[in-house]
Design a protein that fits this description.
About 80% of the residues lie in helices and about 0% in strands. The chain is built from 2 helices and no strands.
Length: about 50
């Protein structure tokens, strides 16, 4: 479930980059959110994943 919230946050951040322009701090936040999503995905994959 948290994966979906983080996906939405990452999509909103990327949309903000398109609308407001490229800001280095925003790219840092994109990297942090993408890293967190990767960790969650790896954790779900190793634990057997969530049943749909």
């Amino acid at each position: 479930m948290i994966f979906y919230f983080m996906t939405g946050a990452l999509a909103a951040r990327l949309f903000g980059l398109i609308v407001d322009g490229m800001v280095p701090k925003q790219w840092l936040l994109v990297a942090v959110e993408a890293g967190a999503m990767t960790l969650v995905a790896l954790w779900l994959w190793r634990s057997g994943g969530a049943a749909p």
